[in-house]
Write a structure and sequence with these properties.
Number of helices: 6
Helix content: over 70%
CATH topology: Four Helix Bundle (Hemerythrin (Met), subunit A)
CATH class: Mainly Alpha
Shape: elongated
Strand content: under 5%
CATH architecture: Up-down Bundle
Radius of gyration: 15 Å
Distance between the termini: 33 Å
Order of helices and strands: HHHHHH
Length: 133
């Protein structure tokens, strides 16, 4: 099982858009990336709320499904720490561990706040001028 003291991120960066997202922004303009970030934020916020309600009702199946959905979109958007916390939630929910799932949920909420902060304060020009990875 995972230790709650281990950070799922290798760096202090909560969000780093993939090369594919950066290429899209270069081709279509940074407005596309901003819109994707806004959509990701709104969708993830709603899913975290649904996940919270599922945990409150003791529904680990629904909690696991929401964590899985967030994990996929977080990974695609470059929020790898959030994706990893969601993987932890999935695994603990699969194991029937309510307390552990709730712990990972709290960590995911905090990581999501960091992601949103980084997305909303991003230097878009600098991001799109970055060397292709």
């Amino acid at each position: 099982m995972f230790s709650s003291t281990v950070s799922p991120t290798e760096s202090n960066v909560a969000w780093s858009p993939s090369a594919e997202l950066l290429d899209l922004a270069r081709q279509k303009g940074v407005g596309v990336l901003r819109e994707l970030c806004d959509d990701f934020g709104a969708d993830t916020s709603a899913r975290l709320e649904a996940l919270c309600q599922a945990l409150t009702r003791g529904n680990l199946t629904l909690a696991r499904n929401e964590a899985h959905a967030i994990k996929g979109s977080a990974f695609q958007m470059g929020a790898l720490g959030l994706a990893r916390w969601c993987r932890c939630m999935e695994q603990s929910a699969d194991a029937g561990e309510m307390d552990a799932t709730a712990l990972w949920f709290e960590k995911a909420q905090l990581e999501f706040a960091r992601v949103v902060h980084e997305m909303t304060t991003a230097d878009w020009k600098k991001l799109t001028q970055r060397k292709r990875e």
